[in-house]
């Protein structure tokens, strides 16, 4: 993988029925980097990701993959370039890990074609990269939350795409599993050059793992750039409606957002 594919949103308006969620949005996902989209609930984060994954058609504007309107490209062509891990995916009842991961090879299957050595190798490599090879024969519904999330990522990897989109991949995971999943995605980015774009709720984890950060508010970009450029007290206030101090994370050196609730305002000079 080279991370050379370009994914962009051009003047896109997205809506559910008559309710517009995103209006005339322009956005570029930098190739070969990790982009994290943050923002308050209902600001349009997941909606934008769904549009980039071709699950939601825009009312106007277009999503562009390598200069082409993604909604006019053949489905399998898109699936060989772009993989998606949706929020809270559901596995078929009783399916084992190896079979679920094998479903990532669907874009490469043709009518009457047989499972190939390339398919075997892709699945084995995905299981190895995610540390799930020893789980291959286990039913997915018997796994822990962290194990299950790694298996879903393995399925996305088996697609062998250069772009991976993830909608809140750490939701419902405890902090150790959150870090485990984000470390894995960073490994994939560094080792393979995979372009990763994901939605995260935790600002401080976003700051630690993002090369490029996008803050959305009201369906529009409030700020975009490096975490240190984006995570300022003013931006946090505008996007989340809360006062904060931003200090240096003693572990990573990235911005650390410290929210200020009303019971602690008399203790700070912000």
Computed CA radius of gyration, to the nearest angstrom: 19 Å
| Count of alpha/pi helices | 9
Please state the oligomeric state of the protein chains shown.
single chain
Q: Round the mean pLDDT to the nearest integer and report it.
A: 90
Q: In angstroms, what separates the terminal alpha carbons?
A: 46 Å
Spans of at least 5 consecutive residues with low confidence: none
Order of helices and strands: EEEHEEHEHHHEHEHEEHHEE
- The percent range for strand residues is 25-35%
Which shape, going by the Cα principal axes? globular
In total, the number of strands is 12
CATH level 4 superfamily of the largest domain: P-loop containing nucleotide triphosphate hydrolases
The strand order across the widest sheet is 6-7-8-3-9-10
**Name of the CATH class of the largest domain:** Alpha Beta
The CATH architecture of the largest domain can be given as 3-Layer(aba) Sandwich
Helix vs. strand class = alpha/beta
CATH-defined topology of the largest domain: Rossmann fold
Give a quick precis of the structure:
Helices cover 31% and strands 26% of the residues. The chain is an alpha/beta fold and 270 residues long.
């Amino acid at each position: 993988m080279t991370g050379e594919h370009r994914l962009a949103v051009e003047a896109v308006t997205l809506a559910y029925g008559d309710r517009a969620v995103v209006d005339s949005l322009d956005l570029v996902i930098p190739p070969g980097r990790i982009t994290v989209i943050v923002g308050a609930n209902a600001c349009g984060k997941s909606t934008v990701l769904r549009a980039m994954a071709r699950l939601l058609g825009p009312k106007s504007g277009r999503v562009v993959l390598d200069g082409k309107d993604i909604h006019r490209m053949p489905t399998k062509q898109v699936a060989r370039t772009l993989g998606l891990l949706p929020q809270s995916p559901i596995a078929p009842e009783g399916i084992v890990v190896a079979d679920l991961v094998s479903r990532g090879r669907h874009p490469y299957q043709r009518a009457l074609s047989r499972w190939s050595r390339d398919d075997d190798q892709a699945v084995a490599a995905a299981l190895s990269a995610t540390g799930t090879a020893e789980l291959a024969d286990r039913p997915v519904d018997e796994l822990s939350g962290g194990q299950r999330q790694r298996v879903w990522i393995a399925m996305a990897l088996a697609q062998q795409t250069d772009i991976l989109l993830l909608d809140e991949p750490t939701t419902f995971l405890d902090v150790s599993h959150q870090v485990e999943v984000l470390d894995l995605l960073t490994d994939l980015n560094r080792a393979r050059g995979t372009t990763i774009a994901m939605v995260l709720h935790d600002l401080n984890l976003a700051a630690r793992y993002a090369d490029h950060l996008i803050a959305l508010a009201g369906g529009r970009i409030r700020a975009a750039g490096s975490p240190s450029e984006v995570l300022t007290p003013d931006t946090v206030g505008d996007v989340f409606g809360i006062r904060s101090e931003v200090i240096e994370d003693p572990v990573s050196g990235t911005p650390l957002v410290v929210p200020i609730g009303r019971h602690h305002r008399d203790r700070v000079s912000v």
